[in-house]
Specification:
The chain is α+β, with helices and mostly antiparallel strands. The chain is built from seven helices and seven strands; from the N terminus they run ββββααβαβααβαα. 24% of the residues are buried. The structure holds flavin-adenine dinucleotide.
Length: 206
C-alpha cells in the first residue's frame, strides 16, 4: 500500500501495459494505491513449456502485459475498472479520477484477464470486502497490470557459498537474479551476498 502516492507507468516497451505504485516521502497526494498480488501456479503456463522451456513463466508474463496493452487506449493509457464492477462482473461506463498521469480507459478486466488470475483476484477482493467495510467500492479502481512483483526466472547459486553453480566468482543477487521481491528482501539478500563475497575474497587472499 502506498498512501498519498501515485500509480506510475512501468512498461519497458510499447507493446505492454504495466503499472506500479509509489509514494513520495510526504505521502500527501489525494490518492492511495496498493498492488494486489495473486499466486501463479506452474500449471497456469504449462501450455507454454514446450515452446518456451525454462522461459515459459517469462512468456506468460509477457503475454499478460501485451493483453493489457491491447485492452488499453493509446500510448501509456492503462485499462481500468471500478473495483465493484470487477468483482461483480459489470462494465464500468465511467471511471473516477486517478493518480495515473497517462490516463485510464474503461475496460472489462474481469473478462480478458486469464481466468486463473482474474478468479483469484476477484475472490481475494471479495474476501477483503467482507473483512473491511467499503473495500469493494465504486470509488476504487483496478488498474492493469502490476505484473512485475517478482522475477519468473532464477539464476542458480550454491546455497552455502551463494556463488553461481558454474561460474566462479559470480554472486547472483537481488530481484533480477530471482532472490528478492521487494525493497526489504532485496536489501537483506544484498547484505548476505556482501558477506559471502567478503568470505570468498578473504579465502582467496584478494
Ligand atoms: C515504481 C516502483 C515502486 C515500487 N514499490 C515498492 C514498494 O512499495 N515496496 C517494495 O518492497 N518494493 C517496491 N518496488 C520494488 C523494489 O524497488 C525492488 O524490488 C528493489 O529495488 C530491487 O532491488 P535490487 O537491488 O534487486 O534491484 P535494483 O534496485 O533494480 O538495482 C539494480 C541496479 O543494477 C544497476 N544495473 C543494471 N544493469 C547494470 C549493468 N549492466 N552494470 C551496472 N549496473 C547495472 C541498475 O542501474 C540498478 O541500480 C517498487 C519498484 C518500482 C519500480
Amino acid at each position: 500500500m502506498c498512501p498519498g502516492g501515485f500509480i506510475v507507468p512501468a512498461m519497458t516497451d510499447g507493446t505492454q501495459s504495466v503499472v506500479n505504485g509509489m509514494s513520495p516521502s510526504g505521502r500527501n497526494s489525494a490518492f492511495a494505491n496498493s498492488g494486489l498480488v495473486t499466486e501463479v501456479r506452474l500449471e497456469d503456463f504449462a501450455h507454454l513449456r514446450e515452446e518456451w522451456g525454462e522461459l515459459a513463466g517469462l512468456r506468460y508474463q509477457q503475454l499478460f502485459e501485451e493483453l493489457a496493452r491491447q485492452h488499453s487506449g493509446d500510448k501509456q493509457v492503462a485499462p481500468a475498472q471500478r473495483v465493484s464492477d470487477f468483482v461483480y462482473g459489470r462494465e464500468s461506463r465511467t471511471l473516477p479520477r486517478t493518480s495515473y498521469i497517462p490516463g485510464i480507459t474503461p475496460s472489462r478486466l474481469d473478462r480478458w484477464m486469464p481466468e486463473e488470475i482474474g478468479a483469484r483476484l476477484r475472490s481475494g477482493i471479495a474476501t477483503f470486502g467482507k473483512k473491511m467495510k467499503g473495500f469493494v467500492a465504486d470509488e476504487a479502481i483496478v488498474v492493469g497490470v502490476e505484473s512485475r512483483t517478482s522475477t519468473p526466472v532464477r539464476i542458480p547459486r550454491d546455497p552455502d557459498t551463494l556463488m553461481h553453480t558454474q561460474v566462479e566468482g559470480l554472486f547472483p543477487a537481488g530481484e533480477g537474479a530471482g532472490y528478492a521481491g521487494g525493497i526489504v528482501s532485496a536489501a537483506l539478500d544484498g547484505e548476505r551476498i556482501a558477506e559471502a563475497v567478503a568470505r570468498y575474497c578473504k579465502a582467496h587472499n584478494f
